[in-house]
Amino acid sequence: MSTTSGEAPASHLAAATPVTRQAALASAAARLRAAGLAPDAARLEAEVLLRHAAGLSREELFLRPEDPIDEAAARAYAALVAQRAAGHPTAYLVGHREFFGIEFSVDPRVLIPRPETERLVEVVCEALRNRPAPAAADVGTGSGAIAVTLARQLPALRVIATDTSAGALQVAQQNAARAGVAGRISWAEGSGTAPLEGRVPPGGLDAVASNPPYIPTAEIAALPLEIRAHEPAAALDGGPDGLAVHREIVAGAARFLRAGGVLALEVAAPGAQAGAVCALIRATGRYEAPSIVADYAGAERVVLAVRGRDDADPRR
Asked: Alpha-carbon distance 17 to 224, whole Å?
């Protein structure tokens, strides 16, 4: 893979003695640009990888850019940059990703948390903030980003987090322990709302939240290499129209939500998924009119619905 004139490829970093932090960063960013990353992303990811390889804070890296990095760090950095250029996600290479100001451990057992999902967390927090002792479910927890963040933001909240993957649940439990909220989160393996049976009484939840897989099966092959080849397929593939898991959750959530409880589902944006999920919710007859919440880029990101009262509900 070629680099621009005058810049050594990242694979040569280990051979140069000494290599300054600034020179290593510039060479790696050029390598990542040549691999197809946008300039801003290449620079940022080169920085993240260098800090990881050399054990540096962001402040250390930028306050002393002319300091050399030692040979071991240079070799480690070259290997990381080569893997990133080959399509491996940076978050998996360094083993963590920040979400809502919390550092989450991630590996190929879990989807990498995205900033867009923070909007889902904000919506649920707003709905539950004034409830005295709320309970919520995070369906398809993955790394635990939603469950752990909700528990951190709402000190009285108790959460049950589910996933179809035992490996994902292991990662999530580690993240909960690191964040200091493990005592308020329980875990269950299974699909959709099925794991809630026997663990949550009917009407026992104030919220059901989920970022389900929502990529239509036929579109998986067109995803960037770093996603389609490395992130778990089960966390991406939403079936023929991307809504298979949404249907499962919509069908089962009302049983576990008390009147006034909220169902919050992330959807693909842009596209027609938000409207389609609203239609699924309206068809149950169990909710008030659903609404669509945009993310900060203006894209339809979250569908929110409030559980209505059933005619036979004694609490009516």
From this structure: 36
Full domain range(s) for residue 257: 96-306
**In 10 A of CB 148, how many CB atoms?**
31
pLDDT reading at 316 higher than 80: no
277 located within any domain: yes
- Kindly state whether residues 245 and 266 are assigned to the same domain: yes
Mean pLDDT of 50-78: 93
Query: What are the tens digits of pLDDT across the range 240-291?
Result: 999 999 999 999 999 999 999 999 999 998 779 999 999 999 999 999 999 9
Model pLDDT for residues 76-86, shown as the tens digit of each residue: 999 999 999 99
Query: Is residue 76 domain-shared with residue 154, that is, in the same domain?
Result: no
How far is C-alpha 10 from the geometric centre of its chain's CA atoms? 29
Vertex 255 angle, CA 254 and 257, to 5°: 60
pLDDT score recorded for residue 1 = 39
Percent of residues, the chain, with pLDDT higher than 90: 89
| Whole-Å CA distances, 287 to 141, 159, 216, 259, 262 | 24, 22, 26, 9, 9
Contact between 147 and 225 (Cβ < 8 Å) = no
- Of 86, 107, 124, the position where a domain reaches its end is 86
Supply the pTM of this predicted model: 0.90
